[in-house]
Amino acid sequence: MSVNVSVGACLSCAADQAHQPYLDGRLRRCTGCGLGWTVPESGQTPARYDLDYFTGGGYEDYFLTAPRRFEAGRRLRWLSSVVGPSVLVEAGCAGGYFLEAARQAGFAVTGVEVSVAATRFAVDRLGVPVQQGHFEQVAPSLRADVVCAFHVLEHVADPRAFLRAAWDVLTPGGWLALEVPNIASAAARRLGHDWPGLQPRYHRWHFTPESLARLLAAAGFDLTRQDTAVFRYYMPLGYRVRHARRLLPRDWLDLRSPRLTHRRRGDLLRVIARRPRDTRSGR
Ligand SMILES: [Zn+2]
Questions:
Q1: How far is the CA of 10 from the centre of ligand 1 (A)?
Q2: Residues 6 or more apart in contact with residue 255 via CB below 8 angstroms
Q3: How confident is the model at residue 95 (pLDDT cuts 50, 70, 90)?
Q4: Neighbours of ion ligand 1 (CB under 5 A)
């Protein structure tokens, strides 16, 4: 039985209530909205995003062309369901494959990336414009109709500061597209420590559909669209077939959609939110 420990107000729901240890105390979790955060181990050094991280030291290779282009195409199709070609900034663009796809679709693109190695890859190999640095620091020089951040918010020191920076980059009525791991997913609950989306060495924050929605609302954004996808959603068909033997029957029972998306039980949580057109701000 868990012991409740009060550690102050929740980042997402502002509930000043008990927070529970989760996964043997490696994480803590808000009992109000489900937001989790990693408890740093003593002596732990901050996560580094060097070449090793982006070539499999993290958890996947960001420079593999075929799967990254497949993934970029799926994300672009999802984004294009709400917004057409316009000015787009991607925070944490890694190797730049999404920027490449968006530019081909007619968007005017700029990336921001903290890793020197990834920035160099995006600029030199794909020829997309990327500024090296932290998004929150580069943001004042940027203006866009769309801000994207795929698998970034779970890494940042302060998600609220990140959302404020995105707000300031966006024109009124502009769109914010985010994707993060979903710790409320069926697989996360079943696999616990072994869930590939957990990554406590790198992920400071662990979002649920509710906690991310509350965080966005508190930052003044209007939530337009939210769903989840399983990891396989972003894998090319040949890859999925080769890995089919790993799938458990329960995966299929939970997620039988041929599109590999689900309202809330998939591994990856996706939201599209909007900065309101008027000047009000909930911040
Ligand atoms: Zn909370």
A1: 5
A2: 186, 230, 262, 265, 266
A3: very high
A4: 10, 12-13, 15, 30, 32-33, 35
